[in-house]
Amino acid sequence: MKLPTEYNALVGALLDKAATVGQPASGVFEITSRCNLACGMCYIRHSASDLAAMRTELSAMQWNRLAREAAVNGMLFLLLTGGEVFLRPDFLDIYEQVRTLGLNLTLFTNATLVTKEIADRLSVSPPNLLEVTLYGATEATYEAITGVPGSYARCLSGIENLRLAGVPLLLKTTLTRLNIGELEAMRRLAREWNVPFQAAWLLTPRRDGKDSAVREYRLSPRQCVELEGAQASREPAPPNRTTSPSTRSVFFCGAGKNSFVITASGEMNACIDLPRPAARPLECGFARAWDQVGRFVDSVPASAVCSSCELDPVCPRCPALSLIETGDLMAPVPYLCEIATARYGPRITPSQCT
Amino acid sequence: MWKAKDNLLLREIGEECVLVPTGGRVLDLNGLVTLNAAGRCVWELLDGHHSVENLADALAGQFAVSREQARADVEEFLSKIEPLGLAVRDEASNRI
Questions:
Q1: DSSP code for A3
Q2: Quick one: pLDDT at residue B90?
């Protein structure tokens, strides 16, 4: 089969091929669960000074060992994220070691800690893409979300340092009720900086089950679907259940088929939103942990309610979102039911409502 | 003689081969280059010690193509990867 030449399509085709052979081609390393910002809607949200979280974090040596083992086992794409990765004083040591492994590397950051020195050091051996999250186009809105005075100016300074250093950048935002009014202004900022821009809005509760303010921040289902429609002409469509047969399961992404996540404390899971099966690659070895992840994903049954729903083909629900929203891998998620209804139009009612 | 540039790693994903730039080369080639089986065969011989003729011999030996077709394929392959900065004519090796 001839591979596509457009970049995103090519990556998708390669990941589909990886899924057919169960290759862990795409990894996420959550280097820390701590962050210097305090966004109320965040799904991790440990403070920068959270000593309990800090104590559980893997060392630089452990991250580098995991990266080497993952690469040997077939990892080609790696995302380094947090929390905020630059909170760790040894982050660049981790990064520079990982950079030598022949990986397509992406970093996520809020940029508020990126000094000129950090940007210059990154530029020596830059990531394939560094994605900066912008929470607003004005200081008032940005800091209403981050809860940290001065963070907007530090974010702009970080972005400028990265731009001047020539690091490949993408600007993105997490849309909430607080900053939806500044979407166009953020897009304009990205244009002025000559960097691509993306917006996301599917917010999830805290992964650890603690109280989350996400419901106060998230957009209405109708707003989500309007944004999807507006974005369709600019950017790739959101994922839906049209994946290839190789990845078709109750998970409609590559979780446990071609991708995995390792948390700050070293647990390997199927995806960021799903703290299962909590395999321990540093203890049992990468290959055995990956096998556990695959077996977990294969063991998750379909949701009897959702699979009989007429909206299932357009519904964003998956077992991870069910678990994080309801505590049950198979339960319908009312917010997502409403999004599916809004996507499809008011022609039918989600099955759990009938 | 042709030589692959440094800091490019050949990685496998499924049955596909992908060239991944490392280090500062990311700025020169921020993307992925996939190689089919014939491309991989040629790529692995770009060590500065093989001429186009040698590469065509290797290709014809490994695949069911004529010597002439193999030479044409090698030249086409090299003409694609040279502008991408993936390989260079190694004149120094040529003089040895």
A1: P
A2: 76
Which residue reads 């921020």 in tokens? B30
What's B45's domain CATH number?
1.10.10.1150
* Nearest-by-CA chain B residue for A2: B36
CB pairs under 8 A between A and B: 61
Q: Bigger pLDDT: B28 or A261?
A: A261
Determine the structural domain holding residue B64 and report its residue range: 2-95
Domains of chain A: 18-299 (3.20.20.70), 304-353 (no CATH)
Instruction: In whole angstroms, give the CA distance from residue A42 to residue A346.
Output: 31
B6 interfaces chain A, CB cutoff of 8 Å: no
Q: Which residues in chain A have their CB less than 8 angstroms from residue B31's CB?
A: 7
State whether A100 and B22 contact (CB < 8 Å): yes
Residue A200 phi, psi (nearest 5):
-135, 155
B16 token code pair: 């596909």
At A83, list the tokens: 């929390």
The string of pLDDT tens digits covering residues B30-40 is 678 899 999 99
The verdict on B9 touching A (C-beta cutoff 8 Å) is yes
Q: Give the DSSP letter string of A283-331.
A: HH-HHHHHHHHHHHHHHPPPPHHHHT-TTGGG----HHHHHHHHS-TT-
pLDDT < 70 regions, chain A: 1, 233-249, 345-354
CB proximity list for A24: less than 8 A, separation 6 or greater: A18, A70, A73, A74, A75, A258, A259, A260, A286, A290
| Cα distance between residue A332 and residue A310, in whole Å | 13
Neighbours of B92 (CB within 10 A): 10
CB nearest to B23's CB, from A11, A18, A99: A99
* A contact set with B (CB within 8 A): 3, 7, 10-11, 14-18, 20-21, 23, 25, 74, 76, 99-104, 124-129, 166, 168
pLDDT at B13 over 90: yes
Dig out the tokens for A195 from the structure: 């960097």
For chain B, the domain total comes to: 1
